[in-house]
Structures are given as C-alpha cells and as structure tokens.
Specification:
The chain has about 220 residues and is of the alpha+beta class. It has one domain. Helix content is about 45%, strand content about 10%. It has nine helices and four strands, in the order αααβββααααβαα. A four-stranded antiparallel beta sheet has the order 1-2-3-4, covered by helices on one side. Helix 3 packs across helix 9, helix 4 packs across helix 9 and helix 6 crosses helix 9. The longest helix is centred in the last third of the chain and has 24 residues. It is globular and about 60 Å long. The mean pLDDT is about 95.
Length: about 220
C-alpha cells in the first residue's frame, strides 16, 4: 500500500495522548505498521518526484525521519514526535532547497525553501533577488504558485537590510530573513488516492521558486 490509511492516523492520535515509553513499547506493533505504511508512501512519492526532476539516488527509508524527539534542551520532555516526516533533498549539497513532508491528523503539510540561511547565504539570496526581481515576481505571481501556496512565508526585518534603500521596488522581498512556502492538506485528501498526485502537482508549481534560490545559494 502506498497511501496513508486511517490506521496510521489512529496510531498518531493515540500517541498524541499517550506520549510515553511504556505505552509506545506496548503498542510497538502499531508503530511499526504505521511506519511501514508511511515508508511505502514516501517511496511512491519519491518515484513521482524523480519523474519530474533528477534528485540524488537515495534509499527512501533514509528520508523517513526518526520519531524520537531530542529532548536534551527542551522543556517538553515527551519522548516522541506526534507525526511522521521527511526532508527530501533535491541536490547533493546544502545549496538546494529541500522538500519537507509532514503527516499528522489535522496538520499534514508540505513545505520548502530557505529556512535558516547563514549570513553569507542570505547575502547571496538578497543579491539575486535584487538582480532578478522581475524573475522572482513572475514566479510568485504565477497562477499555479498562487493556487497551491498563496504567498511566500518567513520572518522579515522591520527595516530595509543593510545596503538597500527603502524605495527599492523589491524592498518587501529583500526584508525576508527566511523564504519558504507551505501548503496544508486536510485529512480527507491525505487519506485518499489523490494525495500523492496532489503533492506532485504542488511540487511542479513550486519548482521555479526552488530553482531560483538554488541558483542564488550556489553562486
């Protein structure tokens, strides 16, 4: 099976209210079944992505992120994530925008872009935005982009970044410290056979956005 089922949602819902090791170990069979189903989903999704663009050869299981939380520096000491997730790299280096997938009842989504750039990377990105403002605006105002994602998200500066004037025609884009997109999915779609095809439609819509920043980060 390569779709998400109600059984996986049942496990995640139960884990959300029983987030402790004794319950998890007692119900490990439920976890292993849900994880296997999620892996099958990721496998089929990656197969679809590879028909759209070339991405690094990697076993799908390596895209499945651990369910165990790192609680060393967190006030929240619950040991398990309440979701399944994957970060799908589009290139062999950090200069490529990755695709993020999260499956959780009521909170499933896909996203990607520039999340936590270094100072030097952000400088390159702003230079590319300033140089090719018309190109970026064309991408983010395209019908498919607006339909699937609406607008760019991310933290912004209150004032123009150093080196750019307030009257720069692209100043609002230049203020971004992060530039990413997100599309939320309702449970009905996630549980349907149309879920992967819908993700792939969104993937095609966001590729020009990803590639714009691939170029910027790779310079």
């Amino acid at each position: 099976m390569s779709t998400i089922s109600k059984d996986t949602f049942y496990f995640l819902n139960q884990l959300a209210v029983n987030n402790n090791k004794p319950w998890f170990e007692k119900n490990r069979t439920l976890y292993e079944k849900a994880r296997a189903e999620y892996l099958a989903f990721v496998t089929r999704l990656v197969e679809g992505i590879r028909k759209i663009e070339v991405i690094p050869e990697k076993e799908p299981v390596k895209y499945v992120q651990r369910i165990y939380r790192d609680i060393r520096f967190s006030k929240d000491k619950t040991p398990y994530k309440k979701f399944f997730s994957s970060l799908i790299e589009r290139g062999p280096e950090t200069r490529y925008c990755p695709l993020f997938i999260l499956i959780q009842p009521g909170r499933s989504m896909m996203g990607g872009g520039v999340w936590d750039p270094t100072t030097e990377t952000l400088k390159k990105i702003r230079q590319e935005i300033d140089y090719n403002m018309a190109g970026l605006k064309k991408i983010i105002n395209a019908k498919d982009f607006l339909t699937h994602f609406g607008k760019i998200q991310g933290e912004k500066l209150a004032r123009p970044p150093k080196g750019y004037e307030a009257d720069n025609p692209g100043i609002e884009l230049l203020k971004f410290k992060q530039l990413y997109i997100q599309r939320d999915f309702d449970d009905e779609l996630v549980l349907s056979k149309q879920f992967i095809p819908e993700i792939l439609k969104s993937y095609k819509a966001v590729l020009p956005f990803f590639r714009f920043f691939d170029v910027a980060m790779g310079e």
